[in-house]
Amino acid sequence: MGLNREEKAVVVDEVGAVVATAQAIIVAEYRGLEVGPITALRKQARASGVYLRVLKNTLARRAVAGTPFEGLTDKLVGPLIYGISKDPVSAAKVLADFAKSNDKLAIKAGAMPNFVMDANGVKALAAMPSREELLSTLMATMQAPVTKFVRTLNEVPGKFVRTVAALRDEREKAEAAPAAADAAPADAA
């Protein structure tokens, strides 16, 4: 049973609100994909923060009309599942990874604000590190000089302590050597 006009307006408003905050929309054809795999895909998408939905293409066109994703409307043909995310890489990763293990899911296109990609562009986007991975790499890079500086500063007192300990050990050996020399002739006599 189809949606009536009010229900369609609600769907367009809901998807439009998600699109307004999105950084990427990825569309994939799911022809022949069964319910079990789609449920697994939805679970994986939810865990990655990706809004995943099967929509009528006419409703999707209305939702993206007047947004930076409007260029995607030419590609909205066939039974499509839409992955929308705030992180440009996560939607592409979720759908591309799923498509690797399920040949019935075929990535058709994708879009970032004012930029439309073909299937190869989406796969290239999916190969990029996610925002969290990039931030962790950046933080490690920024912390490396500070960490090295702190190690260098800690090495100066450590080296001083080791030098003093070595001098102490040498003095103890030097003091013990004459005492041993004095005790040896007394034993021989």
Question: Can you tell me about this structure?
Answer:
This protein has 189 residues and is an alpha+beta fold. The chain folds into 2 domains: 5-128, 2-Layer Sandwich (Alpha-Beta Plaits), CATH 3.30.70; 130-189. Helices cover 63% and strands 14% of the residues. It contains 6 helices and 5 strands; from the N terminus they run αβαβαβαββαα. The chain has helices at 5-20, 35-48, 57-64, 88-101, 119-127, 131-188; strands at residues 24-29, 51-54, 80-85, 106-112, 115-118. Strands 2-3-1-4-5 form a 5-stranded antiparallel β-sheet. Helix 1 (5-20) packs across helix 3 (57-64) and helix 4 crosses helix 5 (119-127). The longest helix is centred in the last third of the chain and has 58 residues, at 131-188. The radius of gyration is 33 Å and the shape is rod-shaped. The relative contact order is 0.12. The mean pLDDT is 86.
